[in-house]
Structures are given as C-alpha cells and as structure tokens.
Amino acid sequence: FKIELAYQQSVLHSAIGKKDSAAITLQEKNIFELQQNYNKLKIRLEKNFPSYFNFKYNQADASVQRVQQSLDQFTTLIEFFIGDSSIYKFTISKTTAAFEKIAASETLAKQMSDYERSLTDADFILNSRSEADQIYTSTAFELYEALLKSSLDGKSSATKLIIIPDGKLAQFSFGSLILQKAEGRNPNYKNLQYLSKEFQIS
Length: 202
Fold this sequence. Notes:
Layout: H1 2-18, H2 21-48, H3 50-58, H4 64-70, E1 75-82, E2 86-92, E3 97-103, H5 106-120, H6 122-127, H7 129-147, H8 149-152, E4 160-164, H9 195-198, E5 200-201
Parallel strand pairs: 1-4, 4-5
Antiparallel strand pairs: 1-2, 2-3
Helix pairs in contact: 1-2, 2-3, 5-7
C-alpha cells in the first residue's frame, strides 16, 4: 500500500503542477480509496495476526530486523499487497528479506479464477469432474510458481509459513497449491505435494 500510495501521490503532485482539475480529482479519489483499504488491512491484521500487527504498527520504526527477531529459523513470513496492476510481495525469514513485484496479468487472474472454480464450484466439480481435476492440478502448480516459489527456493529449513494476504488473496486457498507438477491425466491425489503437507501455514 505504501508503494502504491507514494506513486499515486506523485501523480497527484504532477497533476497539481499542470493544474489539471480532472486528474487532481481522480488522484485524490484514488488516494482516499487506497488509504481506506490500508486502514481495513490494519484492522484485519490486528484481529488475525496480533503479534505481527504489534511489530509492524505499534512499535516505532518497526523494521525488517525487528520482524526477523520475532521469527525462528524454521519460519518464513510472506506478505502480499494488491496494487492496480501489480501484486507486491515481501518475504522475510530469520536471516533474509526480499521484495518482489508480480504482474497482475490477465493470465494470472484467469489462473486464480479457474483454481477457485475447480475447488468451490460444486456443479462444475460434479458434472465435469475430469475437467475440474485437470484445471485444479495445472493451476495449483502454476499459481504456486507465480506467487510462492521464489519465496521458498533455497529455504530448506523452513517448515512454517505465515502468509499475510491482501484483497482478493484474503480468501485464497494457499494450502491446496502443489509444489510439483502433477503427472498424467489422473494423478494420485494422495501423493501430490500440497503446500499444507510441506508447511504449517498460519
């Protein structure tokens, strides 16, 4: 949110310099909506992740180092922020920290929609089981690669994940993602490498 807010404020500043009243009104609206969403995120974090909330908002200059001090060597924290055209991801472990910008492409949006449909659309699952299964196994791996793989590569000691979602990711089923591509048209679901089997997720 802070990244997106800073960008919108820079656009507003440019619009003010050009005395573009329409652009000024639009940017003021965008900034207001971003601030509202930011406040909602803080409320959600305070309710669902009080320890992280305290580190991030209640202590002065809550830094990456302070967050790292709260993590043990087996825990990785992944935080998402949804922007207009990108998903911003922060990954913090005991000894490392990384920032990544993921393009919120139409392909990614369709993968997420298909993934959720394959898990939650009862009529589709019952009437088109084979298709639903194929969509699930393909998108579950594709979304793992797009959203999480870079955060977990090289972290062989990690056994616990703290995932802080945002926006449409708040209801996203991370635990059902799979870490390896399913082979064949009828894979054995018991043998799939589910994220929830490999990590304790909170």
